[in-house]
Structures are given as structure tokens and as C-alpha cells.
Amino acid sequence: MNVDNFQKLLEPTTDFALSRTVSSSLGEELNRRFSPDSEIFNAIEAACHEAILAAGGVHRVQKGGASDGSLNRVKRLQYLASM
Question: What is the reported pTM?
């Protein structure tokens, strides 16, 4: 899966999170809407595992990113998840 397709796969989760205020209830709502049993969670997880295998298990960081700011959505979610 290429970066553009991966970003499209993430859009429902990133769009939802970006439209909310950061709070403890945001995490709860994300867990309800995108639970590990959900189709979207499983699709994202599968895409991540495929990318790791394709990279030979090596973590690679893409420099630059999309000019539309969509990569920034991913970075913001990563930040939120680390809180």
C-alpha cells in the first residue's frame, strides 16, 4: 500500500479526532468508534503489518510528506496517542 492509500485508510479516524477537543473522553470515543473489533481497525493493522514486512522489519521514516497536510494529521494522532 502506498502512502496516499494509507492516508486515505486513516482518514475516518484522523478526521474524527481532529474535529474534537483533546480530552480523556476523546480516547474513549475513539476506542468505541474504532475498536480492535472494527473493520477499520483491522484494515489499518493489516496495512501496518504489511508495511513492516515490506520494509524488512526496519523502521523507515519518510522525509517531507504530503503537501496537503494529511501527514500532519498522522503525526498529530501519534502525538495524541503518546499522551
Answer: 0.62
